[in-house]
Amino acid sequence: MSNRKMLYAGTFDPITNGHIDVIRRGSALCSELVVGVLNNLSKKPLFTVDERKEMIRVSTAGMGNVRIDSFDGLLADYVNRNGIDVVLRGLRASMDFEYEMQMAQMNARLYDDGVETVFLMTDPALSFLSSSIVKEVFVMGGNVNDLVPSGVLALMKNKSQK
Ligand code: COA
Q1: Pocket of ligand 1 (CB under 6 A)
Q2: Nearest CA owner, ligand 1 atom 47
Q3: I want to staple 84 with a disulfide (CB 3.0 to 4.6 A). Which of 7, 70, 73, 141 is the partner?
Q4: Structural domain of residue 110, as residue ranges?
Q5: How far is Cα 68 from Cα 131, in angstroms, rounded to an integer?
Q6: Number of domains composing the chain
């Protein structure tokens, strides 16, 4: 897969250490990993797309082949328009499996020929994590220090003080 262009898409509101684990391992499997931030209004994000991109930028600064982009609309349209070869997904627990299978099978009908979805099992120590749970604990004053990169925590604190 080394000369392949890979996409890891999500809402990333905010990016967590679980996502970073998937990005680090995925980036070793391809020539370029695009982290695609979905402008997903249905999730009522706490952070703007630009804030989320900045959080990802500070967290992936040492990863040379990682690029950050954002998109609206169908994932498959982005994939086909941008010459993506592989779509990367992280599987946290068995509860993710059915949803991921449905999405991968629907997307497979929409992708150009040859595009594949690849799954990585996430770090078991972080399999309970989601962006929503981080936001809920943070907004209520709980400690999320070990759950998001330190640069992300600083940006979250900065926003909450505004
Ligand atoms: N570590 C920690 N958390 C993780 C994780 C990991 N490795 N993998 C997923 N999560 C969390 C996410 O943060 C998210 O948390 P939240 O619900 O609290 O925000 C949750 O698990 C679900 O993740 P995911 O399924 O990746 O949702 P998402 O909103 O981040 O991304 C898209 C989903 C972008 C891939 C999908 O909605 C999409 O493709 N949308 C475009 C529209 C489209 O094409 N629809 C048709 C699809 S067939």
Answers
A1: 9-11, 13, 16, 18-19, 22, 38, 40, 43, 74-76, 90, 92, 103, 106-107, 122, 126, 129-132
A2: 103
A3: 7
A4: 5-160
A5: 18
A6: 1
Q: What are the pLDDT digits (tens) for 59-94?
A: 999 999 999 999 999 999 999 999 999 999 999 988
Q: If you ran DSSP here, which 8-state letter would residue 148 be given?
A: S
Q: Residue written as tokens 């962006």?
A: 131
- Rounded to 5 degrees, φ, ψ at 72 are -115, 165
- pLDDT for 1: 62
* Substitution site in 110, 115, 131 for ligand 1 pocket (most atoms within 8 Å of beta carbon): 131
Residue 73's alpha-carbon distances to 37, 91, 135, in angstroms, are: 11, 23, 24
The domain that contains 148 carries what CATH number? 3.40.50.620
From CA 47, how far away is CA 155, in angstroms rounded?
10
Contact 12, 148 (CB under 8 A): no
Six token digits for residue 22:
């998937």
Dist CA 69 CA 53 (whole Å): 8
Interval between CA 103 and ligand 1 midpoint (Å): 10
The catalytically annotated residue of 31, 43, 81, 157 is 43
